[in-house]
């Protein structure tokens, strides 16, 4: 039987999913961090949130620091703070023991972007004479061509793109994406992505769809069994083609999102336009990419200008 702390955590997770509309992936992260927290408290004999003190939370962070990276410890501390703030706001506890706890400040890490020639090599890597290659090039073109999160791309259905491709498509129409917190945005869809999607829908996807056991599947991107392509499979696709393209950097689907933003800013795009395209709620989040482009400009200057040194 769950103890009071575990029941509080379950209530909070329901709140995150149902009322705040956070994605399943985000809620799973909270569940993992708060599950560790409940185990830590139980080991100290604490099963009621009203018995938690700031010292318990500080000790939890110290224990985590023995095995986790500083960024992971900070994330877990934020989850604990949010839990206790929720409990007080909802009248489920009498005090907030985390009110004075501050997560350790993390050094700002610049996002990693691929040079344009490596992106081009990556996009050229799939064998488009094969149905799987048609799927994969459409996936990669969408990730880089829209700057979308991988969860947004694999969540697309055929109906979401049907009016954007083919002979009757309107080039001015954008792709509607559903981002964090169920926030919608519309992003432009370039000719390369449109052509890749069209080829996948016409020559690749029908064969995959016949393998589905549940009738006609709605998902745009299908796996070998005719089901919706998963995040893990999308990662595997990207990494396989990165290796084929000779890219030695450790990349993920988010690398293409970083590359999209960086290349837009390098090309002169306004940071607030990039903010809208990425679906960031604050321009502060987007401005980290301007630091990347400034570094690039500085490197170019030092390399090319005769009086740089």
Notes on the protein architecture:
The protein is built from 14 helices and two strands, in the order ααααααααββαααααα. With 309 residues, the protein is mostly helical. It folds into two domains: 4-89, DNA polymerase, domain 1 (Orthogonal Bundle), CATH 1.10.150; 116-300, hpI Integrase, Chain A (Orthogonal Bundle), CATH 1.10.443.10. A two-stranded antiparallel sheet has the order 1-2. Helix 6 runs antiparallel to helix 9 (191-209) and helix 11 packs across helix 14 (288-304). It is elongated, with a radius of gyration of 23 Å. The mean pLDDT is 86.
The fold-level CATH name of the largest domain is hpI Integrase, Chain A
Whole-number mean pLDDT: 86
Beta-strand percent range: under 5%
Please write the CATH class name of the largest domain: Mainly Alpha
Protein topology:
Blueprint (H helix, E strand, L loop, with lengths): L3 H16 L4 H20 L10 H12 L4 H20 L26 H8 L7 H16 L3 H5 L3 H4 L13 E4 L5 E4 L3 H19 L21 H14 L8 H14 L4 H8 L4 H4 L1 H17 L5
Antiparallel strand pairs: 1-2
């Amino acid at each position: 039987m769950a103890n009071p702390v575990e029941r509080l955590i379950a209530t909070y997770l329901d709140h995150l999913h149902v009322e705040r509309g956070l994605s399943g992936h985000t809620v799973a992260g909270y569940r993992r961090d708060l599950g560790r927290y409940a185990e830590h408290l139980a080991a100290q004999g604490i099963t009621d949130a009203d018995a938690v003190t700031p010292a318990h939370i500080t000790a939890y962070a110290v224990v985590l620091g023995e095995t986790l990276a500083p960024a992971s410890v900070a994330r877990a501390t934020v989850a604990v703070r949010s839990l206790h703030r929720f409990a007080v706001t909802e009248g489920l506890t009498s005090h907030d023991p985390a009110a004075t706890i501050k997560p350790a400040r993390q050094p700002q890490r610049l996002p990693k972007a691929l040079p344009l020639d490596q992106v081009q090599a990556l996009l050229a890597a799939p064998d488009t004479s094969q149905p799987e290659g048609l799927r994969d090039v459409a996936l990669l073109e969408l990730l880089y061509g829209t700057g979308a999160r991988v969860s947004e791309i694999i969540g697309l259905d055929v109906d979401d793109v049907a009016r954007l491709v083919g002979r009757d498509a309107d080039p001015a129409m954008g792709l509607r994406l559903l981002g964090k917190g169920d926030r919608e945005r519309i992003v432009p869809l370039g000719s390369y992505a449109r052509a890749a999607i069209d080829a996948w829908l016409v020559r690749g996807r029908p064969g995959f769809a016949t393998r589905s056991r549940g009738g006609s599947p709605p998902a745009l991107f299908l796996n070998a069994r005719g089901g919706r392509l998963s995040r893990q499979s999308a990662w595997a696709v990207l990494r396989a083609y990165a290796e084929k393209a000779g890219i030695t950097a450790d990349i993920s689907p988010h690398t293409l999102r970083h590359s999209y933003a960086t290349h837009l800013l390098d090309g002169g795009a306004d940071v607030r336009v990039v903010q809208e395209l990425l679906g960031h709620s604050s321009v502060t989040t987007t401005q980290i990419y301007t630091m990347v482009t400034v570094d690039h400009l500085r490197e170019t200057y030092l390399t090319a200008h005769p009086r740089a040194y």
